Structure to design on (382 residues):
């Protein structure tokens, strides 16, 4: 298979006049344009070609939620997000009893060979702050004791990322255990002071979850003004920041501030999409027992008091970064590809790499997804 007449998006710019060759699901060559010699030709007709998008934080879509712990739900979620260019994602749990979370992890283990978009699980809660719960169920939040999290440590081959509040008693011990087992640790749903965040960083925390949302910011402690998790993350070069760039979770000014502080290599665009993604306005859905509704293209708690995840796809976030924030397209693509892939150790994803997986997205000049390919197989066509 040979992709011709496209504008290839690399981290350092857009390049014309190149062919990209795919064989046996892998990228085998990127070369100057040449006559095809028996290959299947994909004529891109001047559209952009980018690596497939990697979303580290997906709860659901089309009325289905990760917590259903079944192949039908997982397939529906992956199919919907493929329409936005996502070829790898972490199915993300909600705060729930440990048995329910373990059921999700086991179901993912059973399905990930047949649903290739699934890169693993992101466990978000229950080890979070009740003061920063957001749409998570406060009654199900738990302290990170060794007894509580022991069942999850048996599944570190499937769990790729865990969000925890670093200030909780026992959090540092959990971070140590997760890092020893190769799991990315992300601070989030947290009321941490900067010294709590720094201590977690010293133990191996290298990310924060949906930056600016459900996390502490600068405030007074006694007579001193002290940074929170937001400021620590922005000031520490080794911390990667998730960003829900849907235009609702974070204002343009805050997005610009984060971009200036972190750059493309420090930001992972994430949808944080819930089951309402893809549903018509007025649709009702549940976030593990919390009643929610879609309205004006966003997901809300049923009483409309707060956001409940997003209804966005990755291409929507990229479009926001380019058109509203002024980020160059190649850098916005990096935030959706190479940076998140690096964050969870997906070495064969997120870039045009010879020998890497042929996960590819064809994007129109108007930044709409036209076609999505997973390991060389087309999984979506507009």
């Amino acid at each position: 298979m040979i992709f011709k007449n496209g504008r290839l998006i690399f981290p350092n710019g857009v390049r014309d006049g190149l062919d990209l060759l795919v064989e046996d699901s892998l990228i085998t060559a990127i070369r100057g344009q040449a006559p095809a010699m028996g290959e299947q030709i994909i004529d891109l007709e001047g559209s952009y070609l980018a690596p497939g998008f990697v979303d580290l934080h997906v709860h659901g879509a089309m009325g289905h939620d990760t917590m259903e712990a079944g192949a039908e739900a997982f397939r529906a979620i992956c199919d919907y997000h493929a329409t936005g260019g996502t070829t790898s994602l972490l199915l993300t749990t909600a705060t729930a009893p440990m048995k329910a979370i373990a059921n999700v992890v086991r179901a993912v283990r059973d399905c990930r060979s047949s649903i290739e978009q699934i890169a693993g699980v992101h466990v978000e809660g229950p080890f979070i702050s009740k003061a920063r719960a957001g749409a998570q169920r406060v009654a199900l939040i738990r302290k990170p004791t060794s007894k509580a999290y022991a069942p999850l440590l048996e599944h570190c081959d499937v769990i790729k990322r865990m969000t925890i509040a670093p200030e909780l008693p026992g959090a540092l011990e959990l971070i140590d255990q997760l890092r020893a087992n190769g799991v990315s640790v992300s601070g989030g749903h947290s009321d941490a002071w900067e010294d709590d965040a720094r201590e977690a960083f010293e133990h191996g925390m290298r990310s924060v979850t949906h930056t600016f949302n459900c996390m502490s910011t600068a405030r007074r402690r006694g007579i001193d003004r002290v940074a929170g998790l937001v400021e620590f993350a922005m000031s520490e070069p080794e911390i990667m920041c998730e960003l829900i760039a849907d235009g609702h979770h974070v204002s343009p000014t805050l997005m610009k501030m984060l971009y200036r502080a972190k750059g493309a290599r420090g930001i992972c665009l994430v949808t944080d999409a819930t089951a309402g993604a893809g549903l018509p306005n007025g649709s009702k859905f549940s976030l593990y027992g919390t009643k929610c509704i879609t309205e004006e293209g966003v997901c809300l708690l049923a009483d409309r008091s707060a956001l409940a995840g997003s209804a966005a796809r990755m291409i929507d976030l990229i479009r926001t970064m380019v058109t509203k924030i002024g980020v160059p397209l190649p850098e916005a693509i990096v935030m959706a590809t190479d940076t998140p892939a690096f964050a969870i150790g997906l070495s064969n994803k997120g870039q045009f790499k010879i020998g890497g997986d042929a996960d590819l997205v064809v994007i129109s000049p108007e930044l709409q997804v036209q076609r999505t390919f997973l390991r060389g197989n087309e999984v979506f066509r507009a």
Notes: The domain at 52-347 is CATH 3.20.20.140 (TIM Barrel). The chain has two domains: 2-48+368-381, 52-347.
